[in-house]
Amino acid sequence: MSKIEIRNLTVDYTEKKNRFTALKDVSFSIEDGEFVSVIGSSGCGKSTLLSILEGINTPTAGEILINGEPIHGTGTDRGVVFQHYSLFPWMTARKNVAFGIKQVNKEASRTERLKIADEFLEKVGLESFKNKYPSQLSGGMQQRVAIARALAMDTDILLMDEPFGAIDAKNRTILQELLLELWEGDGTSARKTVVFVTHDIDEAILLSDKIVMMTANPGQVYREIEVPFDRPRNRAELVQTKEYNQFRNKLLAMFYSDIVSKIGGDEVVL
Amino acid sequence: MTIKKRYFRVVHALFIVLLLIQLLPDKLKGETYAQYVIWFVVGVEALTLLVSSFIKKPVGLNLFTDIVSFIYGLLIAWTLATAKFNLLKPALFPPPGKVFWRMIGDYETIITNIFSSVGIILRGYLLALVIAIPLGLFLGWSARLGSAATYISKFLGAIPPIVYIPYGIALLPTFRSVSVFVIFLATFWPVLAGTMSGVMNVDKKTIDSAKVLNVGKFTMLFSVILPASLQQIFIGCNQGLTVSFVLLTSAEMIGAQSGLGYYIKNYSDFGDYTRTLVGLIVIGIVIVAISFAFNKIQKYLLRWKH
């Protein structure tokens, strides 16, 4: 049994009498402990797909099973990191993390929650910023806090919606490596199942076990590609290998062939 | 700050002018109590110099000296128009010294009245907050009731609270509770409206990030929606505070035998405008003090915004 099974998911929006299909008959499955990236150009429905997984959106047809059970709304089995506004601006970094812990672990005392929060803030390198409010932190730091909260909540599944999409290139690299390190762990504990939405091919290759490529109008799964590189991965070493570059070019070709076929022209030269 | 920035200010020039004016011969017949004005401004000037020496931020000192300059300017104009040139009717416009003299003479009554008024305002105001904020959160959050409640509260809020006074007298046990009731009504509607509009305007992304944390209904309302709409709630609270000051006099006219509003009303009815002015000045100071405390609380609770 797969950890997550997405079955024939269809989402229609009606806007000013126009029907718009955001997702059409999307099906794929994700194994326990697998890191899956969903990639595609804007408008391919990848964020819509994730919002249904999160439980804040409902599909027009189809269903999602987690551990074989269909989901209804949000659940404590899933932790979420958005691109923006994951944190509550009126809580300090520490309180934000502790608040997340409280929602999944009602038994823990306030002191215990704060202790766990401190532990995870240290893991993301923010121990000296724990009493700052989100408005006092940079975008990258805010995402670190959001990741710390999602990890501290210790859910089986982690859903990330372009978490590094608004971060500058240098910090994005650092955050990708941090996420990779935290997720791969030291091999002693089970890895979490991650669904990671992105439009950055390099990010998807570095992080994922499997990449689900989507196309737009309507949003459909175009290909599922296994990423053949061993873990733990090291970006600096990986990007220098011939295999990496061949794989990357293959993916880019797929990514653009889809766009070319959509706009239907041989005239388009890439 | 440099010595020049600290002490070389217009306010001190005004102080000297104000003192020199006191030396002019009085045109007004009768006692003008100029010594009270002198004592008062010397006290204020001493305080200004003290603040100038210890304050750290130039912005704070500017604010303080600007206010003191305004007071000096007002006293200069007031002294000249009354005691020195006798341009205004003395019965309506007593010289400033006489007002200060009365203020000191009446200080026990004034203190009692301050406590009485502040008691009425705080009771009515806090009661309104305790009821209107949770109710506003609940109504604003309810997709269905929210829009109906907006119109209903607009309708009820447009009725001046003094209209309810006869009903209050008929239903409530004491006259004092009717006064509290008037303040309560004056504050209730703006706070309710502010809370509801705050809740309805909370960013959907904030609500989504709370939803994905699987928060319960109570946590959603009081730990997420409440802080997220706090700024709007404060706008309502501010409006309510302003209205309750305006209505204080009307509220205290209902059979109350104390309070600043009563003090003013009572003495103006008897044509004692010196005491009326005393009351006006004291009520102004009380309003400024309450607003100051209110702003401090607001700044503290919204400290995460900056």
Key attributes of the depicted protein:
heterodimer, A: alpha/beta, 6-stranded mixed beta sheet, 8 helices, B: mainly alpha, MetI-like fold, 14 helices, 79% helix, 0% strand
Kindly summarize this structure in a few lines.
The complex is a heterodimer of chains A (270) and B (306). By secondary structure, chain A is of the alpha/beta class.
Order of helices and strands of chain B: HHHHHHHHHHHHHH
Please compute the radius of gyration of chain A using only Cα atoms: 19 Å
Number of folding domains of chain A?
Answer: 2
CATH names the topology of the largest domain in chain A as: Rossmann fold
Using the CA coordinates, give the radius of gyration of chain B.
24 Å
Total helices of chain B: the number is: 14
What does this protein look like?
The complex is a heterodimer of chains A (270) and B (306). By secondary structure, chain A is an alpha/beta fold. Chain A has 2 domains: 1-76 and 158-163 and 188-270, P-loop containing nucleotide triphosphate hydrolases (Rossmann fold, 3-Layer(aba) Sandwich); 78-155, no CATH class. Chain A has 8 helices and 10 strands. Chain A has helices spanning 46-54, 93-104, 110-123, 139-152, 169-184, 201-207, 235-238, 242-263, and strands spanning 4-15, 18-30, 35-39, 61-66, 69-70, 78-81, 157-161, 193-198, 210-215, 220-226. The mean pLDDT of chain A is 91. Chain B is an all-alpha fold and 306 residues long. Chain B folds into 2 domains: 3-103, no CATH class; 107-305, MetI-like (MetI-like fold). Helix content of chain B is 79%, strand content 0%. Chain B is built from 14 helices and no strands. Chain B is flat and about 75 Å long. The two termini of chain B are 25 Å apart. At the A-B interface, helix 2 of A face helix 10 and helix 11 of B.
